[in-house]
Amino acid sequence: MNFFVNGAIGIGNSGVEHAQFFRAKRFEQANLPYRFVFSDYAPELQEAMDTWGLTNDQVLNVFEYFTLGGDYITKGAPKLFEAKKETIIDSTNTHRLRHNYTRRGLHIVESLVKYPNKHKNDGVLLVSTGHTEIFDRNTGLKKMSWETVDDQHMQFMMRNIHIYHQADHEHYFFENEVRMLRYFYHKINEAFNEDNVFIIDRGEKNEHALVDVPMPHAKFIDIVHADHLGERDDPKNPLWNNYYEYMLTHMNKFDRVIVATKGQRDDFLVDFPDQQAKILTIPVGGVSDTPKKIESHQLEAPLKLISVQRLAPEKHVDEVIKAVAQFHNDGHEVILDIYGQGGEHDKLDTLIKDSKAEDYIKLMGNSNQLAEIYPKYDAYISASYSEGFGLTYIEALDAALPIIAYKARFGAMDLVDDGVNGFLTDYKRDDVDFNVGQLVAALNKLLESDYPTLQKNTQKTVENYQDHVIAKKWEDMLHAL
């Protein structure tokens, strides 16, 4: 069995989850079995599964495993329930007890505590979960309990985990979450009783749990979804992206490391020149084996732009908004629709209003229908400083949208050929005004371009990313393990 290991999924996901969904379809295309494995506490897992079309027998979650027991590993949750929540509030209007009845059969009871902020000396009292119990809604039995500790350095951590009423009435105790996960992964490995492959998409705790202690017959693949490098000022001591530091300092524990672009593989080999057989390139996104028929057209006013990403600081959506507002103020008719959700939403909404751009710049929220939406626009614009692949870039190119983006590692540099299927611009990490000017200049180049030729070139760019090509890469790699 092939296990896709992640923290959790939600209604709004990052590129990591979308890369997993894409991989699942390629595994189906190649007749390769798989399961999604989620290690995080996820009360609304069923709601997310419904949104993204995941079936009961495709998903494993550590908390559900210990709570639901029985045939859960092979068949999933035995029964779905109605979800409901209840909260008990004390006389000071403080939340003290929270009941969460999940659709997949967990009754979660959280005891909330009030305490001073350990991370800031601001006199603020925080309210958070101190103790959690989980009951099986099918039987009423208590199955799990743990304490949540607000560590001075690590912040919120699970401690003193008790597992009750397991097979043969056993009671387990784990000091921390990694030890609990390690037991869970070993039980999965035993249950499928075959040469299993754990494909790790996210989580240093998952890496520790899987590879620190030998697991019989199992293979381990780590997926790199972002730029792995912080800086290489000292070539002998590169500064790694902390999300990948464990893997990069324990390469011997992993059977393969998968990156999404040739450019990133070449960069890996600068630091690991003897690992050519271990480090492979398999794109995390692709296009249909049957290219869409695109009707070429000339640009007409207003210029219709789309941008798709999480609304997070590292995506620098504010620079896109400022550039489009300046482009509009220079006298050009333009529309910009921004798809995605995230913590920057309110800040970006305020920026749009302050720029008096509400009439032509919109925050559109999430959409599961992007394939149908892309063709309504003329071009895709991004201000991300770094992308492991740039999943939305390839989706836009497949819809015949030229790309405007920074010359950023690695996705844009691999997918966009400046002046051929889009426009790449220089950028500076500490100079927003410079960046905005560069994006405006790129928008002007788009207006002055031979747009029908740009459109034709977009689909030629993505021929090597067709679904069957990527499915074959996975099939070949797994058979070679």
From TrEMBL:
<dbReference type="Pfam" id="PF00534">
    <property type="entry name" value="Glycos_transf_1"/>
</dbReference>
<dbReference type="InterPro" id="IPR001296">
    <property type="entry name" value="Glyco_trans_1"/>
</dbReference>
<protein>
    <submittedName>
        <fullName>Glycosyltransferase</fullName>
    </submittedName>
</protein>
<keyword id="KW-0328">Glycosyltransferase</keyword>
<feature type="domain" description="Glycosyl transferase family 1">
    <location>
        <begin position="292"/>
        <end position="453"/>
    </location>
</feature>
<keyword id="KW-0808">Transferase</keyword>
<dbReference type="GO" id="GO:0016757">
    <property type="term" value="F:glycosyltransferase activity"/>
</dbReference>
